Amino acid sequence: MCKTCEQGGCATSNSDKPDPTIGFARDANTIGDAALAAVFWWAMAIDTDAARRAAFVPGAGSAPFAIERADGAYLITPDGRRILDAAGGAIVVNIGHGRREVAEVAARALEQLTYVVPTFATEAKTRLVERLTERWLPRGLTRASFTSGGSESVEAAIRLARLHHVSAGRPARWKVIGRELSYHGITLAALAVGGHAPRRKDYEPLLIAFPKAPAHYCLECSLGRHSDGCRERAADRLEEVILREGPDSVAAFIAEPVVGSAAGALVPPDGYWPRVAEICRKYGVLLIADEVMCGFGRTGEKFAVDHWGVVPDIMVAGKGLAGGYAPIGGVYATDDVVAPIAERGEDLMFYTFTAHPAACAVADKVLEIMEREDLVARAKAMGDVLSKRLSRLANHPNVAEVRGLGLMQAVEIVRDRDSLERFPGEERITRRIVAAGLGKGVFFYPAGSSPAQDVIMLGPPFIITEDEIEQLVMVLEESIDAAVSRGSAPAQSK
Ligand code: PLP
Prior knowledge:
Layout: H1 49-54, E1 69-71, E2 74-76, E3 82-85, H2 88-91, H3 100-112, H4 123-136, E4 141-147, H5 150-167, E5 175-179, H6 188-193, H7 197-200, E6 212-213, H8 230-245, E7 250-255, H9 272-282, E8 286-290, E9 314-317, E10 329-334, H10 335-343, H11 357-372, H12 375-390, E11 399-405, E12 408-413, H13 429-439, E13 442-443, E14 445-449, E15 452-458, H14 466-486
Parallel strand pairs: 3-13, 5-6, 5-7, 7-8, 8-9
Antiparallel strand pairs: 1-2, 2-3, 4-10, 9-10, 11-12, 12-15, 14-15
Helix pairs in contact: 3-11, 4-11, 5-10, 8-9, 12-14, 13-14
This protein binds pyridoxal-5'-phosphate (PLP).
C-alpha cells in the first residue's frame, strides 16, 4: 500500500518511502543602459560589437558589457580586469563562481543522460528531491517539482493552487492575491500577480487584474513609519482584500518573504508572516511564498520564512538552488495541497525541461557544498558584517534607508532623506551608481519600482570575505557620491 496516496498499484506502492512527486506532474534589471558604464576608461577597452549584434533587441543604444569568466567572488573581463560581484549576478551566485567540482558533476551528468521526458525517474532528480525534502525545505513541504527558473516556478505554483481547489470541488476559487511592490517574474501570469509597475507597464492589457494587498513599505506607510502594532495591521490589510473580493473566489495569496528587486531587500515586521499565515488559514486561501531570490540561505536561514517559523502551503525557490551553475527552479508543496489532485488522478503538466538531469545533478552538488562548508551560517555571519558596515551610510543625505537580512541587503537612494523626495526618473540615478561602481571594479544590482524607485541591492556570494565587504561598501559610498553630484539639486534646499 502506498503511504502517499493510500491506494495500491501506484508508482510508489512497492516502496517504503512516499514518492514526493506523485500527483505533482509525476516528477520528482539587467544593467540595461550599460552605455552609461562605457564612459569609464576600462569599459572602452572592451570590444562589444559582437555582443551588440547578438542582442535580441539591438539598437537601443546599449553596449553589452563583456565578461569572459568568473572566479570566486570576481567577474573577469576579456582583458583580465577583475570586478567584485557584489550582486552574485542577479542575486543568484551563492557558493561563488568557478567551482571545478560542480563543472565535473555537470560533465558526468551530461555524459550519463542527455534528456528524458520529465515523467521518468532519474537518479539525479531522485537524489535532489531527497536532499531537499530531508535537509532543506521547511518541514511539511514534502513535494517537489522542478522548472527552468523563477517565472516558470511561479506560473506552476499558480496552476497548482488553482488545480488544488478545482480538484477539491471549489472551482469558484481562482483569484491569486498579490502585493504591491513585488516581483514574481516576467511571464504573463507572474507579471499579473506582481506589483512591479515599470516591468508591467507596456503589457497591462494582457494581464489578468489580480487583486493586490498593500506592501509593508514602512518608509511610505499610511500607518506611519515603524509605528506600534503596524505589523499586525499591515497583515490585516490582506484580510480586508480577501473580504472585499469574497473569500470563496480566492485561491491563494502570493508574496516574497523578503521583497527583492521591486523594492530592494524589504524585510517585513516580525509578526507579519505569522499573521498572514493565520489569515490565509482562516479563509482557506493557500499561502504561496516566493523565495526565488531570498531562498536557499540568502537571508542567513535556509529559507526566509524560517525566520518566522512559517510553513507556506506552496513555496517557489530558484536562483540559489543551483547557485547560477544551472538554470533550475522549483515548486514545493505540502501533501495537503497535492492530495486532492492525486485523488482525482490529475497531474500538473510539466515543462519540457522540468527536472533536467544535468540541472538536477548540479543543484544537488551545489547544495552539498553549501552543507559541507556551512554556507548558510556564513551568509548570516557575513550578512551581519555587511549590515554593520553599511550602517555608516545610514546618515548619508541621499540614503533613505539601509535594509535587509543576511546577504540580501539594499540601500534606497533619494534626493532628500528627510522629505523622501525622489530623483526624477530621467536622471537614472540607480544606473549611474551601478555604472560608477563598475568603473571602480564592483558590480551592484540595480533595483526598485515606484515608489521605491532607486535602490541598490547587494547579494554577494556567501564566500565573500570581510575585506571584500569593506571594499564594496567603500566603493558604494563613492559611487553614490559620484552619481549624485552629477544629478540635479533638491527642489528646495534645506
Ligand atoms: N520571483 C522573484 C522573487 C524574483 O526575484 C525573480 C527574479 O528576479 C523571479 C520570481 C523570476 O525569476 P526568473 O527571472 O528566474 O524567471
